[in-house]
Amino acid sequence: MKSVIRKLAVSTIAATGLAAGSAAMAEDLRYVMVSHADDADAWWNVIRNGLALGGEQMDVTVEYRNPPTGDLADMARIIEQAAASAPHGIITTLADPDVLSGPIRAAVDTGIDVIIINSGTPELAREVGALMYIGQPEYDAGFAAGQRAADDGITSFLCVNHYIAQPASSERCQGFADGLGIELGNQMIDSGTDPSEIQNRVMAYLNANPETEAVLTLGPTSADPTIMALDQMGLAGDIYFGTFDLGGDIVQAIRDGVISWGIDQQPFLQAYLPVIVLANYHRFGVLPGNNINSGPGFVTADDLDLVAEMAGEFR
Amino acid sequence: MSSTGAVADERIRKTSRLRTALVRPELGAIVGVIAVFLFFIVFAGDSGMFNPQGVLNWSTVSAQFVIIAVGACMLMIAGEFDLSVGSMIGFAGMSIAIISVTLAWPVWVAILLTFAICISIGALTGTIVVRTGLPSFIVSLAFLFILRGFTIFFPQTIERRTIIGGISDRAAGDWLAPFFGGKVGGPFFAWLGDQGIIAVFERGTRAGQPVVEGIPMLIVWALLLVVMAHIVLTKTKFGNWVFASGGDAQAARYVGVPVARVKILMFMLTAFCACVFATCQVMEFGSAGADRGLLKEFEAIIAVVIGGALLTGGYGSVIGAALGAIIFGVVQQGLFFAGVESSLFRVFLGVILLFAVILNTYIRRIITGER
Question: What's the domain count of chain B?
Answer without folding.
Answer: 1
